[in-house]
Amino acid sequence: MPKKTDDLFDRTITVTEAAALIQRTPRHVQGLVERGLLKKNQRGRYALKNVIQAEAENLRQQAEAARGKAAGNRASDARAREIELRIAERQRDLIPAEDAKAAVVHVCALVKAELTGLPARFTRDPAEKRRLEAEVDAMLHRIADAAEQAAAEVDGGD
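Above: the chain sequence. Below: its structure as tokens.
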């Protein structure tokens, strides 16, 4: 003997009843038919269980499409960001942090080399030479502090 639920699911309903059942419009139900998700039993009548299955499949496909679109948007955003960075780099608006630090280190080394030899080129008097060496040493410490601060700003992005 068949169960009562089997009788219920085998029942046929009209397009208007199907639309009300799934809380959609009759046009939506017709769209399910056009997409091959729902088959008519008779003219304008549908098996109740087929309506439910068709709408469930429709919702599954919509969710899958939304996930794919979200992934596509993330990939598209990443590509756009990469292009922006390349353009900024070509326009010399952007350089890698390591390149910036290397340039500062290079300039500081050149300044140190030049200033270190200054006292010997300036005088032969030992007392005056020591006084100039102390001044140069103080300058080099200030330059080193400024270079460290610049490197910290490059690292921190400030």
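The chain has two domains: 4-65, 95-156.
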